[in-house]
Amino acid sequence: MTQNQRYDLVIVGGGTAGCILAARIAANGVHPETGEKLRILLLEAGPDFRGEARPGYGIPLRRRAFTNVPQDFTGNPRYAMRGGSRILGGSSVTFGGQSHIPFPADYANWNYTTGVDWTEENVAPAAAEVRRVFNVHADPEESLSSGQMRFRTVSRSLGFDVQAYEGAKKNCILCGFCGGGHMCKYDAKMSTLITHVPDAERHGVEILTNVMAERLLFQGTRATGILYTEDGEERLVEADNILLSCGAVQTPALLWKSGFGPRDLLGSKTVIENLNVGRRAHCHPENYIWALFPEALKDGDRGWNAGTYFLHRMNRYGHDSLFFQDSGMGGLAPPDQAITSEFTPEFGRETKEFMKVGRRSIGRVVLWTNPKEAEGYLDDQLRLIYETDHPMVMRRLTEALDIAEEILQKMGAIRMTPKETLLKSIRLPHLASTCRAGTDPKTSVVDSRFRCHDVDNLFICDAGVLPRTSIGSLAMAVATVATFAAQRMVADNFS
Ligand SMILES: Cc1cc2nc3c(=O)[nH]c(=O)nc-3n(C[C@H](O)[C@H](O)[C@H](O)COP(=O)(O)OP(=O)(O)OC[C@H]3O[C@@H](n4cnc5c(N)ncnc54)[C@H](O)[C@@H]3O)c2cc1C
Q1: I need a labelling partner for 85 at 20 to 30 A (CA). Which of 12, 414, 425, 474 fits?
Q2: What is this structure's pTM?
Q3: Residue 212 Cα, ligand 1 centroid: separation in angstroms?
Q4: Are residues 399 and 261 in the same domain?
């Protein structure tokens, strides 16, 4: 970066949303007064894995740098931070690769919740672009394991409408080791590192990696610049417009550090008050129900695939609906998960035998609900505090576990994780809504056009702006909303 250069737009966070916004605004936007190309800077906390994107082949050096084991990324602060992955491409580099373009009920839900005009019709071109660019599609039927076939047959016999789950992959060799928080060795997983970073660079976006934005600077109701650290040194960059895309945890964190947020949390450090920053969090209270079968459910050749899913109790808005997936029926549990499974013999040769062939007989149903009422917030350590004991969450998850148990029993399972254990260990994936968009400044942080209610030239777009988490899994919903946001930002600010 040239010192003291001023940018038309600085984007903080080069993740799923940030890279899409950088690429699309750079490609389609111009300076509104001069008509010239925009000067855009992207600041990203994590490293860049450079090299020509060749989906399905990857980059030989990178293939050697990473194993298909999640420890490379999880718990390693070089590549992870609270709420997601710290790498150019963000959580799209490490997500499970399975994801839904928003359902019609998602648009209805978002509109119902905060009044945003993100209708199915308005967002349709963005959704179509995401489907094409990320190559979102179902796995071929032949890739379903015998366990997945059995899940589908039994669920259909119980009256559920089972559909093919979709994934964002290209030239995938179905090694299946794309889940659990790590990079695809072959670049077959369609992360924004593959889909959008090359475009962003081609259109002149300057990308600074391994830099951490520490604080925004405000003058009245305008954001004037960002203080960030690079190699331990603090630096300042000034901008006419600032867009935050640090994810549903780190965007609120950055705003809080800048004095923007709830006064009850920030006290005398409050510069701009907004009650909703880091609050109104929404996610999927979720359970994994593991089961042991007397025979193998899968061939053991690979990890997971997209498989199948069904929705239950769907209504117009998807409120309190139930989502079931055969995740874990398709591929082997990775060794680190299998060895600690409740079904693994504790000691000796039996353990070895189980790890070698026995783990082909473990299956899993994943289920979650999409609460209408339950919400949460980030505490001062950025931990998510959520109403998992909300009566509707408990009622729905209990019902879902009953259904999953029935399916697994009919599939022939001989042991399952007890329901009581599961209800005490609810997982909370797909965090959204911590800076949610809405028409009422009292209950939201940005408006329907992604502009902060309280600061003229500050925009936010990442998982945090969704008024509610999506009914299915989240990544492609974030990508769709980011593609839509880029269209709106170009129309409003860079035409
Ligand atoms: C391990 C994992 C598995 C998942 N699996 C699935 C799945 O199978 N299917 C699915 O649909 N969804 C999945 N998700 C969820 C989905 O990937 C995320 O919800 C989505 O990608 C979030 O996008 P985002 O743009 O909000 O944030 P991110 O993609 O996380 O991007 C945020 C970026 O901001 C950067 N950043 C943060 N703070 C700063 C700062 N102060 N300065 C500079 N840069 C900063 C980060 O390094 C990161 O690159 C998964 C998520 C994770 C983490």
Answers
A1: 425
A2: 0.97
A3: 15
A4: no
Q: What local confidence, expressed as pLDDT, does residue 311 receive?
A: 98
User: pLDDT of 13-40, one tens digit each?
Assistant: 999 999 999 999 999 999 999 999 999 9
Residue type, 25: I
Helix (H) or strand (E) holding 310: strand 308-312
Residue type (1 letter), 91: S
Distance 39 CA to ligand 1 centre (A): 25
121 occurs within a structural domain: no
Q: Are residues 270 and 306 in the same domain?
A: no
Token reading at 331: 């591929």
Residue 433 reports pLDDT greater than 90: yes
**Residues in CB range of 348: below 8 A, 6 or more apart:** none
Q: What angle do CA 190, 192, 193 make, to 5 degrees?
A: 95
- Structurally, how many domains does the chain consist of? 2
The pLDDT value recorded for residue 337 is 79
pLDDT at 3 over 60: no
Q: How far apart are CA 401 and CA 395, in angstroms?
A: 10
Calpha distance 27→33 (Å, rounded): 17
CATH number, domain of 416, equals 3.30.410
Whether the CB-CB separation of 380 and 267 falls below 8 Å is answered with no
> By residue range, what is the domain housing residue 332?
140-165+286-370+389-424
Instruction: Indicate whether 2 pLDDT > 60.
Output: no
**Would you say residue 54 lies in a domain?**
yes
Distances (CA, A) of 193 to 47, 121, 162, 374: 11, 28, 32, 34
Please state, in angstroms and as integers, the Cα–Cα distance from residue 371 to each residue in 321, 387, 471, following that order.
8, 10, 10
Q: Are residues 242 and 159 in the same domain?
A: no
The pair of three-digit structure tokens given for residue 450, joined into one six-digit string: 């992604």
Query: Token digits for 337?
Result: 């998960």
Residue 360, pLDDT > 90, answer yes
User: What tens digit of pLDDT does each residue of 161-176 get?
Assistant: 999 999 999 998 887 7
Ligand 1 residue neighbourhood (C-beta within 6 Å) = 12-18, 43-46, 84-87, 90-92, 94-96, 98-99, 181, 212-213, 245-248, 250, 254, 430, 462-463, 473-476, 478
Protein residue whose Cα sits closest to atom 41 of ligand 1: 213
Rounded to an integer, the average pLDDT of 244-264 is 98
Residue 129 lies in a domain: no
Question: Does any domain span residue 376?
Answer: no
Which residues lie below 8 Å from residue 274, measured CB to CB, with a gap of 6+? 260, 261, 262, 441, 445, 453, 454
Q: Do 329 and 414 fall within a single domain?
A: yes
Are 13 and 462 within 8 A, CB to CB? yes
Q: Which atom, in ligand 1's list, is nearest to the CA of 246?
A: 34
